[in-house]
Design a protein that fits this description.
The complex is a heterodimer of chains A (330) and B (335).
Chain A: E1 11-24, E2 28-43, E3 48-52, H1 59-66, E4 74-79, E5 82-83, H2 89-98, E6 99-102, H3 106-109, H4 116-126, H5 132-145, H6 151-155, H7 164-176, E7 182-186, H8 194-211, E8 214-219, E9 231-236, E10 239-245, H9 246-251, H10 256-264, E11 316-319, E12 322-324
Parallel strand pairs in A: 3-8, 3-9, 6-7, 7-8
Antiparallel strand pairs in A: 1-2, 1-4, 4-5, 9-10, 10-12, 11-12
Chain B: E1 4-17, E2 20-33, E3 37-41, H1 48-56, E4 63-72, H2 82-88, E5 94-97, H3 111-122, H4 127-140, H5 157-169, E6 175-179, H6 187-204, E7 207-212, H7 215-218, E8 224-229, E9 232-238, H8 239-244, H9 249-256, H10 295-299, E10 305-306, E11 320-321
Parallel strand pairs in B: 3-7, 3-8, 5-6, 6-7
Antiparallel strand pairs in B: 1-2, 1-4, 8-9, 9-11, 10-11
Classes of the chains: A alpha/beta (330), B alpha/beta (335).
Chain lengths: 330, 335
């Protein structure tokens, strides 16, 4: 199935840098944490993408930059062609209504002192839906959409009375209630049990298809991505090292880091217990003082001296639609 | 390999709460052979961490009931007094790596000293000898020796997890219980830790009980798998059988819910939720979610019996299932 998107992309990230300054005694600049370091991509309307990476790779900073919670140090995010940098006041508020956010920890994301009705009414009130009956109608519709039924029973419940999966459905309903064009989900199922995970991912995917919205997942789990996204971006130490359509990336990874990730993962099989896995030595680098050249080179078994440790690899295109920032593809 | 290290019968741990007794572990039986790795697999709230606590006698204050018979080698350890259990079994013969314990290291004591501590406390070893032994264990778990003089905050998550593992191993226990040892770690670090465990199992002949909710991780170490649901074991069998062709409907559904890297078949969710452990159903606890249930399932609880009926060798069979579909008395009803 090929989808063609004739319009302009929904989101364009252009040379995005999100650095956090480190200061000593509150004023002396001593360096920066380069959480997002020159990342560019576009998200089309109606597509689902996944950002994959280990903790500390900058994926949450990237998400927060897209949400407009961090101002990029350099570069810009354009949403429907308009740069976020210039948004203020009413325009910024309008942008926030166009972007839904699904947090990682549903229990932490829901205020414990509000019942489900009030939790879902909050964004409507903030964005000026004054008519009580209209709010009630939309709240019920949202709960129906995330299949939290019977709605009547759920409305009066407080978060602690719901299971983890139900809590996450409330979070999703809240993210959808203002009818956003883009939904960003930061590890939406990592806190949930295996049997519930699939339910939530299917739900997100169905809603995305039905509404034609753009869905950006953040995850550390490559195994869950295949059925729930069309493209994957692999992040390492603040940079996108590889991006490709899902099947292409999982079946023919081109960057040594992606290959290492895939080699470390297993499908359940009794034979796994008898073989040691190949794991690159070392650990992800500090984002304050990342290695010169390719950031993966100190751990890479195929690093080429004089090249990988000196020159930052640009994006190569080993296959159509598949890009990898690795000198092996020169 | 053949002899049994641990034999657990009818283990129970109930908590007292305002709503009544929560039957977190409710009559669990299994055994572990020497050098064997048993995975206790289960979703959150099924009682798997309570099972570890019940084995180690790390009992909570709101205890309602702790029972069952546990033998370790020739010792009936459930008969021992608390004092003798603490002196002779806890940490020295049976050690536990608790969930997220890598974050529970003492921040102001050097890692090497902490790893040596069990020897000094339990066995009254002198400091120097204990540190020498700690150094050996450091190497075993892949920690550089100069890390002994570092403080926990100077170590990454993966390194701290190795240190906690070293602490559990330092007194040379025959059985190490690992409660979600890798769930807070990144993919590559997880794989590295699982490699360490595989090497320990191969080289030291230590027995392991690995407690996890993650099916893929469980297959990295398991010789055998025991699946837990709502306080009970529902199936226990060899890893090959479990990951290949499990017998219990819950096992089969669970395997189908796992997203796979290299398969195009979509994973399927298991609908519904586990029952409350305050007042579990009288029949099979999985019946409400089971697509294969029939009248008997909701009426009376199935026993945990050898799979394949009462035929020859069934009594010694180590494949057990708690399901009316596999009950011996139904053998004649098929075909």
């Amino acid at each position: 199935m090929t989808l063609i998107f004739p319009e302009a992309p929904l989101v364009e990230a252009d040379g995005l840098h999100t650095w956090f300054e480190l200061r000593q005694w509150g004023f002396l600049r001593v360096g920066a944490v380069r959480a997002v370091d020159d990342v560019s991509f576009t998200l089309a309307r109606g597509e689902a993408v996944a950002f994959v990476g280990e903790s500390g790779c900058g994926k949450s900073s990237l998400v927060r930059t897209l949400l407009g919670l961090h101002r990029p140090t350099l570069g810009e995010v354009r949403f429907e062609g308009v740069s976020l940098a210039g948004l203020k006041g009413a325009a910024l508020k309008a942008y926030r209504a166009r972007v839904g956010y699904v947090q990682q920890d549903p229990f932490g994301a829901l205020p414990p002192f509000l019942d489900v009705r009030r939790i879902l009414a909050e964004p409507l009130k903030v964005h000026g839906v004054k008519d009580r009956a209209e709010r009630e109608r939309r709240i019920r519709a949202a709960l129906e959409e995330v299949r939290l039924t019977p709605v009547e029973e759920v409305l009066g419940k407080f978060p602690h009375m719901l299971s983890g999966g139900q809590q996450q459905r409330v979070v999703i309903a809240r993210a959808l209630i203002l009818e956003p064009a883009l939904v960003i989900a930061d590890e939406p199922v990592s806190m949930l049990d295996a049997s519930v995970r699939v339910e939530i991912l299917e739900l997100l995917r169905n809603i995305q298809h039905r509404r034609g919205l753009t869905l950006a997942f953040v995850t550390h789990d490559l195994a869950t991505v295949r059925h729930y996204a069309e493209r994957i971006f692999v992040l390492y130490a603040g940079k996108v090292v590889e991006s490709a359509p899902v099947e292409d990336l999982l079946d023919a990874p081109q960057h040594p880091y992606t290959r290492a990730l895939l080699a470390a993962l297993s499908d359940p099989d009794a034979a796994n217990a008898t073989r040691l896995r190949e794991v690159p030595g070392g650990e992800p680098p500090s984002l304050i003082d990342p290695p010169a050249g390719c950031r993966f080179h100190p751990r890479c078994s195929r690093a080429m001296e004089g090249l990988c440790d000196r020159e930052v690899p640009p994006d190569f295109t080993p296959r159509p639609g598949h890009s990898a920032a690795c000198w092996l593809h020169l | 390999m053949a002899d049994t290290l641990l034999k657990v019968e009818d283990l129970a741990l109930h908590y007292r709460t305002r709503g009544g007794a929560v039957r977190a572990v409710d009559g669990v039986s299994f055994d572990v052979k020497r050098g064997e790795a048993l995975v206790i697999l289960g979703e959150s709230g099924c009682g798997k961490s309570s099972l570890a606590r019940a084995l180690m006698r790390l009992l909570p204050r709101n205890l309602a009931h702790h029972g069952g018979r546990v033998r370790m080698g020739d010792t009936p350890i459930s008969e021992l007094s608390d004092e003798r259990f603490r002196r002779e079994v806890q940490w020295s013969r049976m050690a536990l790596v608790m969930q997220a314990s890598m974050n529970a290291l003492n921040p102001v004591v050097k890692v090497g000293e902490q790893v040596a501590e069990p020897l000094r406390e339990l066995k009254r070893w002198p400091r120097r000898r204990a540190l020498e032994r700690a150094a050996e264990v450091f190497q075993r778990v892949g920690l550089p020796l100069d890390f002994m003089a570092r403080y926990p905050f100077e170590l990454s998550g993966g390194m701290r997890q190795r240190a906690v593992l070293a602490m559990a191993l330092v007194a040379e226990p025959e059985l190490v219980i690992l409660d979600e040892p890798t769930s807070a770690l990144d993919v590559l670090t997880q794989a590295a830790i699982m490699n360490v465990l595989k090497e320990l199992k191969r080289d030291l002949g230590t027995s392991f009980i690995l407690i996890t909710h993650d099916v893929a991780t469980s297959s990295e170490l398991a010789d055998r798998v025991a699946l837990m649901y709502a306080g009970e074991l529902v199936e226990a069998c060899s890893a090959a059988r479990f990951f290949g062709e499990p017998a219990h409907p819950y096992s089969r559904l669970l395997m189908k819910s796992v997203p796979r890297l290299h398969e195009r078949e979509r994973p399927r969710a298991i609908l519904g939720q586990p029952p409350s452990l305050l007042d579990p159903p009288t029949g099979c606890r999985f019946a409400a979610r089971c697509p294969e249930r029939f009248a008997r399932c909701e009426a009376s609880p199935p026993a945990f019996v050898p799979e394949g009926g009462t035929g020859e060798g069934a009594a010694e069979s180590r494949h057990r299932v708690r399901c009316w579909l596999h009950a011996p008395s139904r053998g004649g009803e098929h075909g």
